[in-house]
Fold these 2 entries.
Entry 1:
Amino acid sequence: MKAVRIHAPGGPEALTYEDAPPPTPKAGEAVVKVDAAGLNYIDVYFRTGMYKAEYPLTLGMEAGGTVSAVGPNVTDVRVGDKVAYTGIPGAYAEYAAVPAARLVALPPGVSTRQGAAAMLQGMTAHYLACSTYPLKKGDTCLVHAAAGGVGLLLTQIARMRGARVFGTVSTDEKAKLAREAGADEVIIYTRQDFEAEVKRLTDGKGLQVVYDSVGKTTFDKSLNCLAPRGLLALYGQSSGPIGTFDPGLLGAKGSLYLTRPSLNAYIASREELTQRSGELLGWIRDGKLKLRTEFEFPLKDAAEAHRALEGRKTTGKVLLVP
Ligand code: NDP
């Protein structure tokens, strides 16, 4: 089968479209014929070597497709089921072997491409807004990179929960998308000082929560945007890691909370995975949550897709199609 692999960390040119051995399912595993794989920032971290792995590595942590084979002791799925999953490396390929307990059956009305687009960024947006800081009416939150993959979904879910939502974006085009997703206020952080804007828009009161996936270039000001006892959910580092941090700053800035959450901890059990994905996919089926999947690349052009994501050229989900 064809797959996109890396043999050593590097730039987008390290992504090699090549023949790889097709997977056979071990006990407890199913093989999924991939209809679409999702591109996520974590793929960039694995490609560059920021996150460690063994090589050759087939990148990709998310896909939607059809079960084509099952190994012994598999009861969760059957051949022919339409499924999606996240958290298992190897999605940039025609076929992927996945522990059956990590697969989610897609409800009627949700396509395998939508499944591929929803699982990683969608469940991240879900846990951030519903579990890390369960937003409620009366809260004001800030979503950085609000036109991105997680950003557009988080903005919509935050609004569904009744919060007032501020979003940051780099361009006017992205600002329009963030507004369409429900952002009450959009700050173009490449031209405007987002800390000053947040203070102005909240009459100096600050925010209950900042969802920060940008990291290095936003972190300090994100802390300054919080109301006393507010929470900074630092869930990514698209601009680079923040480096070392003195917890004393949390006291000095108003008894703040800081968390560095990751999706795996919020879908660790089968029960939490099915509950979270079930609610998310239900919203998509019912039209309450809109996926934006304008950026679709053939799998063989994965390098081009990576360049677009890292170059801040994409909005919403980026899909790779074998
Ligand atoms: P996005 O679609 O959000 O793309 C990244 C966006 O970040 C860009 O479009 C850009 O938006 C913004 N950005 C700001 N500064 C930079 C920079 N220097 N270089 C590149 N981009 C920059 O990606 P994803 O939705 O896939 O992921 C968003 C973040 O969320 C990532 O950091 C990822 O690691 C994290 N994440 C964390 C998870 C978790 O559980 N902890 C799970 C999923 C994702 P703009 O042009 O508007 O500034």
Note: The chain has two domains: 2-120+268-321, 136-260.
Entry 2:
Amino acid sequence: MALMSVEEASALITQGVTALGTEEVSVSAAAGRVLAQDLVARRTQPPADMSAMDGYAVRSADIATTPSTLTVIGESAAGRPFGGALGPGQAVRIFTGAVVPEGADTVVIQENVARTGDTITTTSLTAALRNVRKRGSDFAAGTPGLTAGRRMTGRDMMLAAAMDHAVVPVARRPRMALLQTGDELVLPGQGTGADSEIVVSNAFGLAALARRAGADVTDLGVLKDDLATIRATIARALSGEFDIVVSSGGASVGDHDLMAPALKAEGVELFVHKIALRPGKPLMFGHRGTVRVLGLPGNPVSSHVCGMIFLAPLLRALQGDAAPGPLTAPARLAAELPANDARRDFMRAKIERRPDGSVHVTPSASQDSAMLGILADADCLLVRPPYAPAGRVGDPCEIIPFDD
Ligand code: AMP
Ligand code: MG
């Protein structure tokens, strides 16, 4: 089987993928959700010219020289504007966030005036328009403040709320079914302790990264390497309850690797490709109708890396995410590396942040695809492109930080 590049596999997996649908959620529940439509400001911010400081609202023409003396005729506080207009030689006591009264065009900060009774005398020059936040300088009603495809951060939620949106339209979460196969597998705490047993681990990592990518995950459990059993579970997973079915294990071509035959028997149009990546083995993807299927390797590290590289971006694409990832970041090598072969290598690595802000990475001592201790201890994947030349300490490199 010829090797397929990671880029080609990613492109095939996400080909033609669009958001599944839209739902409205409270702005307070929008963190991490992908915005389904542009969000247009319902209000203008600031709604009027507003003071950025505590001081006195004045006409700049009246304070062109220092000292200037003005008469205080009232007060404007946040939420309690001064009702009237300001005439020549007059000032209004003003506080941060208060509407600048009609007639005033600048705010002299209180540190720059001396006050006696209702009279103020300026003690230094203040330019026109100083300390005034102009109406609409943040955003104007009718203009889009947030664009569709954006994964909402807390800061985006602040902006959406300020634009007067109590609810926001977001892509609905992909519903994902997860299953694992292997005669040797037992659930944590449920084995007999026999040497032939392996306690399952893959589903926990895959579910965590899938949820982090926005999916609703249902674990369909651990299945024996038995065609009828696997087929029955796949039939259920494909029956309309889920948008995507993800399996781990049984993806090779051994006698007990029944995932591909079971999927095909259940009518899945399936592609099995050997991908030019390490760690990882054959990857299966396909669909039956609108339900997508992704078959990941059983080796724990391979399943997790393929989850990061292929599954999480697919889930994000199913929400219309404009940047489905995987998101890479620049770093520098902190160790020498040999030249790479034809496979894109995703090495488990530790990050060291130096005082100057630079990020240096050291690959973990073992890159064995079954080593969970090393996977858990690592901070990122260090990406080595196919045929990368030998790397020296200090060379630029690319990492994918773990975010699960
Ligand atoms: P397979 O892809 O089924 O050939 O499995 C490859 C290796 O991964 C074997 O050593 C399995 O025991 C192990 N393995 C498969 N599935 C899981 C799982 N869900 N959790 C932990 N290890 C697994
Ligand atoms: Mg197996």
Note: The helical segments are 6-14, 154-162, 202-212, 227-237, 259-265, 300-317, 372-377.
